[in-house]
Amino acid sequence: MANKVSETQTNSNLNVDRLAPATPLRTCSEDVQADQSGAPPSNTAPSKYKNTKILRSGIDSLYLTYPGNLRSELEDLLRSKKLAAQSKVTADRIEATVHIADQPFTVSGRGRGPFGYQLNHNWYHVSVSGREAGRMPLLQAQLSSEALTLASLDELVSSLGVLAEVLSGDIERPSVSRVDLCTDFVTDEVLEHIPVSDWVRRCRRFAQYYQGDRYSGLTFGAGNQLSCRLYDKTLEIEKSGKDYLHELWRERGWDGVSPVWRLEFQLRVGVLSELKLRDLEVLRDNLSALWEYCSHEWIRLAKPDGGKNRSRWINHPMWDVLQNAQFNEDAVIPLQRVRKDQSPEDDRLFVHGLGALTSFMAREGIDSLEDGIEAFYSAAHSYHRRLSQHTGRTLPTYVREKVQLKRTSFNARSSTDYDLQTGELK
């Protein structure tokens, strides 16, 4: 969400003691009122409210932490790759890639916070601590939204576990340090017109956002251990390019035009500890119960009835639908293969990537595609020939270096492999 236009804040540090439920976290939605028909709630069944329909629910982001100590030979390798990534010499930066445990990674030139090294590919981003990091965990991994949406969580965690084992030499169970649960839905409700006073919530921090003149959403408790976002996901995709969601939404009845909104709860390590959900398997067994806690106990959208006791206000009909979102992994979608490399999809290349060519053709008054490509190629040669007096690079040299760097950033090649069986570099 962009262009924050209003924010109210009267308590920036919510006491996490207030987040723990008065009773143990429930493992089923036994307090949610049943549908009038008596049928259990479903993400794919038509909503009893005609103007709100859930398209999908799932984990949008997951952070796992592994204990352990980095092997000395691998720290030497990662240090050399990090230095290569920092170099101003193109040939050096091309070498900032490595295969570890049969996985291609790009090594960043910078660490992340207390972690000295960053390894990236399309499944997850991994922050690794050096041997002198003291009591820091070995690594923290952020599993990507695309992988969590399209692939098996078991496969992702298994792959990550092998990586952790190779880095440290030990097998350790991960702990969850953050999870984001989300539900995508369509509605006829005009969310921009809902007064903030209709939200019955435990946090006080609140902000609304616009992108240009278009309302993009709102947040509650941003920066706290537990926070909530409600935002226009279709608008966000226009910038992020995560259009793999479009097909999933269409399968659930999206018309391809209506805005798809996302309700998302972010839970950090403090609240996960209080709810005893740091263990990954326990978390997976309690996803629906966790959603229930967030959407019942922590925040809900109500219909004011004039009474002073806000806790007694009944739910807004849209919120009744969203509270009933289900997180049964087996019923999500057919699993798909997710690329480990980070190369762009065809639409980013052949739609968005044609922007420079079409702009050139418009500037030069050229209508024919063939003539436009030929003129663009000739003009590019001339431009780089003039520039080469200062850079020493003609168009072929410039393009060759760019291709090599992009192969590195896409994980399409790796200059160094670490062999799991022999423990040797090759």
Explain what this protein looks like in three dimensions.
- With 426 residues, the chain is of the alpha+beta class.
- It folds into three domains: 4-59 and 182-331, no CATH class; 68-171, no CATH class; 346-409, no CATH class.
- The protein contains 14 helices and 16 strands.
- It has helices spanning 72-86, 90-93, 145-150, 153-168, 233-240, 244-251, 269-274, 280-285, 287-298, 317-323, 346-350, 355-364, 369-391, 395-409, and strands at 4-8, 52-66, 97-100, 103-107, 117-120, 124-128, 139-143, 175-187, 199-201, 206-211, 214-220, 226-232, 261-268, 299-303, 314-315, 417-418.
- The chain has a 13-stranded mixed beta sheet. A three-stranded antiparallel beta sheet has the order 9-14-15.
- A hairpin with a 2-residue loop joins β10 and β11.
- α12 crosses α13 (369-391).
- The longest helix has 23 residues, at 369-391.
- The radius of gyration is 25 Å and the shape is flat.
Helicity, in percent?
25-40%
Please tally the helical runs, counting DSSP H or I stretches of 4 or more residues.
Answer: 14
* Strand coverage percent: 15-25%
Q: Overall pLDDT, averaged?
A: 80
Structural class estimated from helices and strands:
alpha+beta
Low-confidence spans: pLDDT under 50, at least 5 residues? 5-24, 26-49, 330-340, 417-426
Strands ordered across the widest β-sheet: 1-10-11-12-13-8-2-7-6-5-4-3-16
User: Count of DSSP E strands?
Assistant: 16
- Helix-strand pattern, N to C? EEHHEEEEEHHEEEEEHHEHHHEEHHHHHE
- Spatial gap, N to C terminus: 44 Å
Number of domains: 3
The biggest beta sheet reads: 13 strands, mixed
> Rg to the nearest angstrom?
25 Å
Shape, principal axes of CA atoms: flat
